[in-house]
Amino acid sequence: MSSIDTPPPADGIDTLKRQSVRGAAATFLAQGLRFILQFGSQIALARLLSPADFGLVAMIGPVLMLVQIFNELGLSQATIQRAEISQQELSSLFWLNVGVSVVLAIIMAASSSAIALFYGQPELVMICMSLAGLLVSSGLASQQIALLNRHMRFSALAWIDIVCSAIAVVVGITAAWMGMRYWSLVLMQAANAITILIMAWALSDWRPSWPSRHEGFGNLLRFGGHVTGYNLINYAGTNLDSVLIGKLGGSVALGLFDRATKLVAAPIWQISLPVARVAVSLLSRLNTQADRYRSAYLRMLQGLLLATVPAVVCIAMTSSQFVPMLLGTAWTEAAPIVTWLAVATAFAPLSISSYWLFLSQDRVGEQLFYVCVKTAIAILALLIGLQGGALGVAQSYAAFAILVHGSLLWGATRTGPVSHSDVLRACYPFVIAGAAIASALTWLNDSSAAEQLTRGQLLLSDVVAAYGVCGLTMLCTPEGLKIARDLWNLRTHFGHVRAPS
After folding, report:
1. Which residue, among 2, 428, 475, 468, has the nearest Cα to 209 in the 3D structure?
2. What is the value of pTM for the model shown?
3. Chain centre distance of CA 410
4. Rounded to an integer, what distance in angstroms lies between the CA atom of residue 80 and that of residue 284?
5. Cα–chain-centroid distance for residue 323?
């Protein structure tokens, strides 16, 4: 079987180093621009649409995410993680993705009436049928995106991120301005999916051949099966809240919870996604080099914490100010939900980074067990919190956050190059920084100077203060100085990584 991988450039590792560093930088830049586009669109759409409009589409969200898990089947991650993969294997994965996506689209469309009946919302029939068609475009693009990631073509992926987000935002806001209500959110998702499909095929030079029987395909399916199991269990822990809040509280309550979740999760995921894109590819190539593997993982985890800790602390401390200012007074009830979800999200980098470890070390069977533990704790927190509605759920999540996210990372570091003590040493400076940021923001918002500022000026001051205090805290401790130096030198890890061959 011929390999679809290409040999490294003729001028060797220096070229690979330059390409990897440029690609990683492009990924972060693209996600920054994407965050600005999506965050700005959330503000604009919140002022053009009602909580009930968001709630209607959010009711379909868990259903769409569930079928997308089966649509993917973990096959993209199998493509990225394998040291070698042939044209025949890749073509078989492609056609399997396409076939499954068509079947799932039909099943989802046929289930639309039952979904509408469950929620008591007849509008969901057409929404569900419209979103079902997007599954096929996802199946057609899946392996193309995976190959771009496998070959570390992060610049191409960055272009896809930016262009698809920009087109989706324009389509969504235009439709909302024209009075299309919840359909503007559906059109926004459709524009995003179609743009990804077109660009993935345009930027990838791989084309599938007809599938054929061959050895090794069973191993790929087993790997994908474990990843799918992980995604399904993780799905249950992260989407059951939307189903129950929507069922018990209605579209308005779910709309408030959904927007609060998006406000908190958007900064975290926009930062963590590019890190994950680099991390899985990079760590998979460093599997046989324990010291470099450990060093690269810890520095990427610290970089993720450095970017997210100030953000989540700032969101938690200032939600009562920025939620009404950004979204409008109709969303004031979402502010306390945002505060508690931000506290819970502060621990999310722990479970996010555990995914890098399990996947790059091909320990997907263990990952499936530990995500069951994590999900059981999350569901317990949800059931306890439901007594207090959407706000009670957010408060319960915050109380259980360290157990939910820490359990997965504990399992990931039981064996392998990275130990529990490695992670504790890497994370403790950020606990100190978080406490310092909270103290600084409390003083700033209670000071007489804050009374002279507008809400916008005060929010900007809080953001600057949060990152400034975090940086100063890092520089005032020996471990913090080491983090700053190592993050600056992170690019050296890319220089030791060769593209798959």
Report:
1. 2
2. 0.64
3. 21
4. 8
5. 22
DSSP 8-state symbol, 83 = S
Distance CA 140, CA 168 (A): 19
d(CA 96, CA 153): 24
CB hemisphere CA count around 126 (13 angstroms) = 6
pLDDT tens digits, residue range 76-122?
666 666 666 777 777 777 888 788 888 888 888 888 898 888 888 88
Whether 480 and 426 have beta carbons less than 8 Å apart is answered as no
Most confident of 13-27, 214-228, 417-431: 417-431
Q: Please state, in angstroms and rounded to a whole number, the distance separating the CA atoms of residues 462 and 472.
A: 15
Non-local CB neighbours of 379 within 8 Å, separated by 6+ positions: 236, 237, 240
For tokens 């569901």, name the residue: 379
Instruction: List beta partners, residue 86.
Output: 3
426 contacts 384 by C-beta, under 8 angstroms:
no
174 falls in which pLDDT band (50, 70, 90)? very high
The pLDDT value given to residue 171: 92
**Token match 């157990």: residue?**
403
State the Cα–Cα distance between residues 26 and 42, nearest whole angstrom: 24
**Contact between residue 267 and residue 340 where contact means Cβ atoms under 8 Å apart:** no
Q: Which residue has the tokens 């059951």?
A: 240
β-partners of residue 3 are 86
Cβ-proximal residues to 430 (8 Å cutoff; 6+ apart), any chain: 302, 305, 306, 309
Tokens coding 297 = 């993982």
Is residue 138 within 8 Å of residue 67, measured between CB atoms?
no
> Per residue in 1-27, is it b (16+ CB within 10 Å) or e — as a string?
eeebbeeeeeeeeeebbebbbebbebb
Distance (Å, rounded) from C-alpha 374 to C-alpha 369?
9
Q: Token digits for 55?
A: 């709630």
Domain ranges of the chain: 8-214, 227-493
The answer to whether the beta carbons of residues 314 and 441 sit under 8 Å apart is: yes
Q: Which of 148, 128, 141 shows the shortest CA–CA distance to 97?
A: 141
* Token duo for residue 489: 């030198």
Dig out the tokens for 306 from the structure: 């450095």
d(CA 338, CA 36): 19
The alpha-helical segments, DSSP class H, found in 286-329 are 290-327
Taking Cα atoms as reference points, which of 487, 461, 430 lies closest to residue 309?
430
